[in-house]
Amino acid sequence: EQIEKGGYEHFMLKEIFEQPKSVHDTMRGRLLVDEGVIKMAGIWDHIEKFKNANRIIIIACGTSWHAGLIGEYLIEEYARIPVEVEYASEFRYRNPIITDKDVVIAISQSGETADTMAALKLAKEKGAFIYGICNVVDSSIARITDAGSYTHAGPEIGVASTKAFTAQLTILTLIAFKLGKHNGNLGNADFMSLIAELEAIPKRIEDVLSSTHELVQNIAKDFVNATNFLYLGRGYNYPAALEGALKLKEISYIHAEGYPAAEMKHGPIALIDENMPIVIIAPKRGHYDKIVSNVQEIKARKGKVIAVVNKGDTQVSAMADYVIEIPETSECFSPIVASVPLQLLAYYIAVYRGANVDQPRNLAKSVTVE
Ligand code: G6P
Asked: Which residues form the SIS domain (predicted)?
């Protein structure tokens, strides 16, 4: 096992550090920047289904559901196709309206999650075209879908999903750009600049890993005894906030909630005092001014702010108690880059609390029962 961990103390840390490679591997052979194309056989062979779709319904559980939410932002922004994202467990039991004009995308690292599988079967029975985004090759979900794209993240052992999540985001980005280019909603110049930026994302992740690793480790030390955490973000980074909170609760057992930053005033603000740590994702591109006022409101109530900002940020940084810098990207890529320090933060807080990071209590890597 020590050998499998490749010198890292836990699989989770190894998998966090593998992300430059796993994201790169997920794009390899698909993203051809010089030729200006995205090659995805699963999409291309069924392009009429996507083109004529009334809507896309994404179903998933856990971390994969968070990826799905970001997929909604991506596909609606770039391909202008309506997207709904549902928890598989809710979808399957609520008699959903599904027609043969719907495309249903299931996202699942393991490809074995019982609820996701059952929801897919239901969609298939009702005539929808079903597409899979799985990590495990030849898994049950991969086998029953009409088509799909594998994330090539490699085996993920840590129960808390890290590299599978960023690989899922990579696939969803490719799908959104491909569909948008095809249906004319994403113009050629924008397409070209976005794919060039996407190609450089593994390098951005590498930079973030090396520039934030030690810093985040030190920040984590100050929160070992925290009992609650709030995670806030807007737009693409709202699901990133949900995922950051999920990581922390899964492995450190600290109660954590993710919220859209603007919803803070509808509830969570009542919780803020000097004992409440608040992670706020505030990249420049993405409603920055609105986030600045959220931070002001938090500081007025003495909340402890851990801000994830772009390099060179001044406004939020001046108010924050802790500052984690990530490189500036187009907004659609920021959840990939911002997730990395949040994974590290959850990891180190859990390690300092003496928790079993790779196998947290009560959780399973793959939930094959209801
Ligand atoms: C379990 C795992 C999570 C995962 C979820 C969905 O709860 O602990 O990490 O996100 O299942 O799993 P899937 O394999 O379908 O992505």
From this structure: 46-185, 219-360
